């Protein structure tokens, strides 16, 4: 399998963005490439229906003004963007039977694909945990559609992501924990900007009206992001280890951990 050419920029090499191997995104230990594509089509179809239903319902409820303010919404948008992009790339891989279309496009797009993947795999663990443990108040008066959207955006999203992770063969340079972490920090800063404009906190636990204890929530969420990132890295390693033990690797594959990225 062919990886990207080494970057001319040391920061890119340090993070491991140029270690991305495109074919790992389209091949699976457990099924054929074509079957994997069909699974991705189903995942993407569900995320598309959910996204547009959520979009319309938010407008109907008069809450569209805050649509792009919620971290949970942004996380689902990222998941949907990843699934759509993965499907398009996967289709082109099946059509051309090579990854030249990726290797010949601006390299930054491949770096962004890997960045999107790492944020999606991490934040779609964080979102269900935070939503169902902290944010989910009594919503018994919600309609069935709203209940379905809550479960889809804040719960089923985890399974959409997790299925894709289990089926692909991608590897994650662990130094990418830093871009993921600072993405969350950027959102926290955005929450302050939104508060300065609307005088309302996006999420109650971010409010500094509760005193110094608010800092504990910020620290807890930031810590969870790091923990969940390494949890998902462990899932990738366990997936490949099980495939190796079961003899699922092809002649062109080998099970290894790149210690240069540790």
Task: Report on this structure.
By secondary structure, the chain is mostly helical. Helices cover 66% and strands 0% of the residues. The protein contains eight helices and no strands. It has helices at 10-15, 33-60, 71-96, 100-103, 107-135, 144-167, 177-198, 213-245. The chain is globular, with a radius of gyration of 20 Å. Mean pLDDT is 86; it is low at 254-262.
How far apart, in Å, are the first and last alpha carbons?
A: 21 Å
Work out the helix count: 8
Strand content: under 5%
Mean pLDDT: 86
Overall structural class, as computed from helix and strand content, comes to mainly alpha
Number of domains: 1
The dominant shape is globular
Biggest sheet statistics? none
Please tell me how large the radius of gyration is: 20 Å
Low-confidence stretches: 254-262
Q: Which sequence of SSEs, written as H and E, runs from N to C? A: HHHHHHHH
* Fraction of helical residues: 55-70%
Counted beta strands = 0
Give structural attributes.
262 residues, mainly alpha, globular, disordered C terminus
Provide a quick synopsis of the model.
This protein is an all-alpha fold. The chain is built from 8 helices and no strands.
List the helices and strands and how they pair.
Layout: H1 10-15, H2 33-60, H3 71-96, H4 100-103, H5 107-135, H6 144-167, H7 177-198, H8 213-245
Helix pairs in contact: 2-3, 2-6, 3-5, 3-6, 5-6, 5-7, 5-8, 7-8
